[in-house]
Amino acid sequence: MAIQHVMVIGAGQMGSGIAQVCAMRGMRVTLQDIAPEFVERGFSRIEESLVRIVKKGGLSESASRDTLASITLTTTLDAVASADFVIEAAVEKMDIKKSLFMQLDGLAKPDAILATNTSSLPITEIAAVTSRPERVIGMHFMNPVPVMQLVEIIRGLQTSEKTYRAVADLAQALGKTPVEVHDYPGFISNRILLPMINEAIYCLYEGVADRDAIDTVMKLGMNHPMGPLQLADFIGLDTCLSIMEILHDGLGDSKYRPCPLLRKYVAAGWLGKKSGRGFYDYR
Ligand code: CAA
């Protein structure tokens, strides 16, 4: 199936990045969020990212203008009806995702694929609220979407081979590398990444070393581009906590227990870069 029109639900960091990479590859994109200021902020993020890409020679000025021109902003779901592919990147709350997928299922063309960019919620459970579970799939991009090579493609229990193939082909058409994963808590990326981040927080909590020492060990010792505490701030400490809780609940092993210091920071509203304060101070 040729994917010409992509509908992206949610214009935050991830949704705007997904809209951008689809538009850069010549697709028509509709970017939706619930309020005009959210879609406008998402569009500004795309403009800023394109400026960086043009500056380093990754795209011409005219291709950048064409990219922006192929993105339509909206606060309604009307355009779902003409989309070949719908990807949801709204908030990570199961009840919101289920209610959205019920609506999308009712509005989308019968053969349209409904994907979710969830970082850890079960695809099988989201698919089960639709009449087309074979055409529901996880397509998990990494942040920042225009830069990161990986797309985790998560098969729900009922996802069909045809849907998997179409989404893997789409990831490749976007210049990304798809990796096939089955639907278990945290998939692969967050099942491995988040316990490492949580352990780094335990090292800080137990006084094994200070923040900078922990991040330096992982940056210089393991060649990670960011230390785990800086990366936690970048992901969002509330998101880190919610993923640890999903791993803990879903896998039932105490090795996934969230660090009390992570809980304390989230309770204080220290959510990382987005709130101005996390393990680092951004104010
Ligand atoms: N759009 C376009 N280009 C961008 C960009 C954006 N939004 N952000 C960064 N870049 C480009 C820069 O222009 C720069 O390009 P050149 O090297 O060609 O000049 C390059 O990326 C590096 O950027 P910077 O020099 O500004 O900064 P940096 O070297 O510190 O890199 C980073 C920034 C790419 C974010 C790097 O620190 C990194 O890779 N960090 C780790 C990111 C990571 O682990 N992401 C996964 C998070 S987990 C997740 O997403 C899943 C989940 O479910 C929680």
UniProtKB/TrEMBL annotation:
Family: Belongs to the 3-hydroxyacyl-CoA dehydrogenase family.
Example GO biological process: butyrate metabolic process
Family matches, as Pfam families: 3HCDH, 3HCDH_N
Keywords: NAD, Oxidoreductase
Organism ancestry: Bacteria, Bacillati, Bacillota, Bacilli, Bacillales
Domain 3-hydroxyacyl-CoA dehydrogenase C-terminal, chain residue ranges per copy: 186-282
Name of the protein described by the UniProt record: 3-hydroxybutyryl-CoA dehydrogenase
Binding locations of NAD(+): G10, A11, G12, Q13, M14, G15, D33, E92, K97, S119, N143, K274
Annotated site (Important for catalytic activity): H140
PANTHER family for the chain: 3-HYDROXYACYL-COA DEHYDROGENASE FAMILY PROTEIN, 3-HYDROXYBUTYRYL-COA DEHYDROGENASE
Record pathway: Lipid metabolism; butanoate metabolism
GO MF, any single term: NAD+ binding
Superkingdom of this protein's organism: Bacteria
